[in-house]
Amino acid sequence: MRVCTGGRRTATGIVLVGTLAVAALAGCAGGGRAGAAASPSASGMTDAQLQVLVNNLVQCVRQNGAPGMPDVPVRNGHVVLPDPNSVDQATKQNIDAARQACKAVEDRIPASVLDNSQQSGGPTAADVPKLRAFAKCMRDNGQPDWPDPRADGSFPGQDLRQGKTPQFRAAMQACQTYWDGPIRFTP
């Protein structure tokens, strides 16, 4: 799920809407922490308030030619960008036009919420305990080949998220209570 800094709002918006349309909860974002923050973020708004704005954007994008746009959660004052591999072709093809149609809605979201540049590396060593619980959950829910994470927070081997079956999606949904942030596979 990565943002440039020059022209940050435009690049971030493209990444947000593009990856929003490309995902389902992994990608490039926040630390996999469950629950919305009750205290205000850098934008001065709570995650719940920001979530309303992001939901409005997602709904607008769906209504303007990208119906496969997945839900996009807000965690710790930032959007959690979805996995680009999870978005259908029609949504990918229409995302630019949908984004243009929704510019007024996007402009209501503080730029700091769309800025994932600090989070673009995915999970870190500090996230490993949560990732271990997630991996165990995946194995317990019909994905016996799901590996434990490495010490850096990445998972070894090929990306197991390819070719998602209904069973795989059910396991991901069941296990997001343990980890709902980006997942990174490395060779």
Features:
187 residues; mainly alpha; 2 domains; disordered N terminus
Task: Estimate percent helicity.
Answer: 25-40%
Count of structural domains: 2
Q: SS-based structural class?
A: mainly alpha
Order of helices and strands: HHEEHHHHEHE
Radius of gyration: 16 Å
- In percent terms, what proportion of residues is strand? under 5%
- Strand order in the sheet with the most strands: 1-2
Number of separate strands: 4
Task: Characterize the main sheet.
Answer: 2 strands, antiparallel
Explained architecture:
By secondary structure, this protein is mostly helical. The protein has 2 domains: 8-114, no CATH class; 125-186, no CATH class. The chain is built from 7 helices and 4 strands. It has helices at residues 8-20, 47-63, 89-101, 103-106, 111-114, 128-140, 166-175, and strands at residues 74-75, 78-79, 155-156, 185-186. The strands form 2 sheets. The chain has a two-stranded antiparallel sheet. Strand 3 (155-156), helix 7 (166-175) and strand 4 (185-186) form a beta-alpha-beta unit. Helix 1 (8-20) runs antiparallel to helix 3 (89-101), helix 2 (47-63) packs across helix 3 (89-101) and helix 6 crosses helix 7. 42% of the residues are buried. Residues 1-39 have low confidence and may be disordered.
